[in-house]
Write a structure and sequence with these properties.
This protein is mainly α. It is built from 11 helices and 13 strands. The chain folds into 2 domains: 172 residues, Glycosyltransferase; 168 residues, Glycosyltransferase (Alpha/alpha barrel), CATH 1.50.10.20. It starts with a helix and ends in a 9-residue tail after the last helix. The strands form 6 sheets. The protein has a 3-stranded antiparallel β-sheet, with no helix packed on it. 44% of the residues lie in helices and 10% in strands. Helix 2 packs across helix 4 and helix 6 runs antiparallel to helix 7.
Length: 377
Amino acid sequence: MKKTTQWIVTGLLCLFAAAMAVGAQDAQDEKKPRKPISWSQCLAQKPGFYAGDEAVRIADNVLLYQRNTGGWRQNIDMARVLSEKDKAQLRKDKNKEDSTLDNGATHTQMRYLARVYGATKLERFSRAFLKAVDYLLEAQYPNGGWPQRYPNLSGYARYITFNDEAMVGAMTVLRDIAERKPPYTLVDEQRRKKAEKAVQKGIECILKCQIIVDGKRTAWCQQHDEKNFKPRPARAFEPVAICGGESIGVVKFLMSIDHPAPQIIEAVQAAVAWFDRVKLTGIRQVQRPDKSKKRGYDNVIIKDPTATPIWARFYQIGTNRPIFGDYDGKVYYAMSEISSERRTGYGWYGYWPADLLARDYPAWQKKWAPKKNVLKN
């Protein structure tokens, strides 16, 4: 009996010592400097992260990068550690008019600042967020569209832009504000009402931009004219076309609208039917090693009767024929006809509508259009 008691005591002491060791190690680990995360990871952290020193450090970076217009540039790792020289230069650059919605810029920074403010209640972050709200509201055209850049409206940046989900990104964050979703409850009632109105105008713009061919609605171009809503080209290799890629974000936004109006239901149904019509079967894109090419490989299309459906990025309006572009501004009808640099440096084919057709649309259709499934008619 005494030996049993000794074993129990010894076991408890061992467990206590192990727990102390683990606790000491955890405390030691907390003191160790953590490797900085990248900007692309900033919205994917656990809730507790946004109250911490690292989150605040990054948020202060975001404030430095914010232009006086209220927006931000694109393609910058705003989570990197800044030197004093970097900070001084950013302060000098405050008046630059290069704010944009391209590649997730501005609405991504807004979402991050809202999370950090919600966790810390530091007023400098709420002020920056509200300034960005004002930027989005000011950048919107009277007809409801958003340009790619604002206030610099030179070139194709002035067009109503669906590319890289510029419109959808702006409208989604404004809708979250309008619906008072956390952590966007920091927005005052006056701005909230403006955001609500801006989203409604944006939806009306989306419907006006939907390309109609022979009386039937299809999908959208990457960008549309800011005055008459007609599809417009962008870079030399991005022609006027119905887009199999960018249109997905637009459709998903429309599908996320609660109690959609009949015209929204019609727009979604038409776009889904178009995606189904233009799917490409019997082919597959593969990479083949090619040391003579700059990237060391080439993208080619091969025949494969077992391949799952794939979609082209661009379809010719009126024929639904896949088209391709190059730096010469010409339109080509086969990927093999364009330069190897463009074949490997741009996404000409993809599976963007696959999940929409297989999963998202059936669920939406069952809820909002139970009497009409365009994939079965």
